[in-house]
């Protein structure tokens, strides 16, 4: 909770994740999607907290939700961290 409320990108992450309903499988129960959306917010903010040189950009949540749906929350953090630092670094560091 502390990471959420104090992170500079929190508000934008929440807005984008809340609008990401189309990224979840059709027919997924609303309650299950809501849990995954909360996990998605946590994943994104955790990776950004670990890497203060990176910045959130629109579309970053699309990468994160794909990882979340395929490998789960814990592995998503590790994979998103690696992707952000090696493959998405230019987008994450020049978006502002």
TrEMBL record:
Gene3D superfamilies associated with the record: 1.10.8.1310
Keywords: GTPase activation
Pfam families hit by this protein: RabGAP-TBC
Residues spanning the membrane: none
Record domain Rab-GAP TBC: where: 1-96
Entry keyword Phosphoprotein: no
Entry coiled-coil feature ranges: none
Domain of life: Eukaryota
Name of the protein in its database record: Rab-GAP TBC domain-containing protein
Organism: Xenoophorus captivus
């Amino acid at each position: 909770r502390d990471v959420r409320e104090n992170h500079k990108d929190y508000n934008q992450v929440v807005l984008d994740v809340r609008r990401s309903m189309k990224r979840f499988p059709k027919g997924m129960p609303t309650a299950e999607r809501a849990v995954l959306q909360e996990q998605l917010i946590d994943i994104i903010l955790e990776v950004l907290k670990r890497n203060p040189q990176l910045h959130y950009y629109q579309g970053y949540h699309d990468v994160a939700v794909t990882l979340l749906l395929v490998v789960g929350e814990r592995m998503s953090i590790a994979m998103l961290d690696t992707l952000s630092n090696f493959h998405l670094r230019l987008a994450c560091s020049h978006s502002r």
